[in-house]
Amino acid sequence: MALTLALVGDRLRVYIPARGAGRTLALVSFIDSIGTGLFLAGAAIFFVRSIGLTAAQVGLCLSVGGAVGFATTVPIGVLGDRLGPRRLLVLVQLWRAACLVALVFVSGVVWFTAVVALMAIAETATPSLTQAVVASAVDGESRVRNMAILRSTRNVGFSVGALMAVPLIAAGSAVSFSAIMLGDALSFVVAALILARVPLTRVAAVRRRSGFLAVLGSFHDWRYAGLASLNSVLTLHMTILVFGIPLWLIRATSAPAGLVAVLMVLNTVMAVVLQVPFSKHATVSGGAARVLRLAGVMLAGCSAAIAGAAYASPWFAAVLLVLATALMSLGEIWQAAGAWELSYHYADPQREVQYLAVFSLGAAVQDVFGPALVTAAVISAGTAGWMGLAVLFLVATVLVGPATSALERASRQAAMHDSKDSKEEPCCALTA
Predict the structure, then answer these.
(1) 259 and 126, same structural domain?
(2) CA gap 73, 418 in Å, rounded
(3) Residue 336 placed within a domain
(4) 184 and 224 part of one domain
(5) What is the pLDDT of residues 164-212, one digit of tens each?
(6) Nearest 10 degrees: Cα torsion 72, 78, 81, 84
(7) Judging by beta carbons within 10 Å of its beta carbon (0-12, 13-18, 19+), is residue 263 exposed, middle or buried?
(8) Are residues 147 and 227 in the same domain?
(9) CA gap 217, 220 in Å, rounded
């Protein structure tokens, strides 16, 4: 019995950051995600019943907000390099809280769109700022592991928040829906207060001499942007889970509709349990590109399984959809791990937040165009659409290798140039 408990304890330690800063960041992530889980569970109903919008208006306003968030991601990244990622992330958390409070008092499409756009600016900036704070708070070798822990923690928090929202949604009153928004706002305030006390082991280089617009327009690392574009294709797993699988299940297969909830739980459990141990494969030499390619293969297999479910009996269709969700979840886990390591490794240390913001544009693009691509193009085209999506994933998978090789060559050339400059400087100093 003691041996069993010891083994369980050893396994659980994998999910606990080794350092104080990592543990504090995990707590921040958990509190933040509880509020987000509350919001995600009740937001759609709140928008329709409390604010009085139609479903079409909600979709249009959210798309506008997503476009605004996309346009401001890199500028916010530049600002993060100037102010410091932790300071700006604290401000962003408070900004999100203010937007949620404002939603309680909003009425009409115009004001709703304005608040949603302001919220989207903060939402799209948060991932890259969080990644930069992790880089500043923990040792380089444990960055990916800590990001994996935060992702697992967030999935647990989402589930807790969603469960907390159930009685509030069941009450169905204006007060209960307002409580959901205010509860989410409170979580951001508490997270900001804790985040402000996170100790940093490395202070990010801050560029203050050049003007803001000059720095914003100075990004010319198209190799890095190219890898970010390939990564954006692989982030389509988000839309496949939320829109693709549920809509395809209902419209094209004979599987029971209740299976959707089971598939969502399966994805959450796999993300919580596997993200941390699987992410370690991205930190070995050549591992990041390898797991990113694995993600593409898994997502291609997922698309093929979804397509096949349309031709199967109810129970076999259910099996294929469970298989598709498992493959999609593995793709999600490996895509995240590979993206974290590659985005860290090839980012310019002097403009780290800006580089990470550029890399995170893939997720922002997915938020804007992913739902339309999957619903209007893939599902509408039927089986051919899903097989076409599988081909797209495989093409992205093949191109990951050349993209990372090009970045590695450029990185080595830059290192050789810096080494040559450092050797020449003493000679020049003596000559002077």
Answers:
(1) no
(2) 30
(3) yes
(4) no
(5) 888 888 888 889 889 999 999 999 999 999 999 887 765 544 444 444 4
(6) -30
(7) buried
(8) no
(9) 8
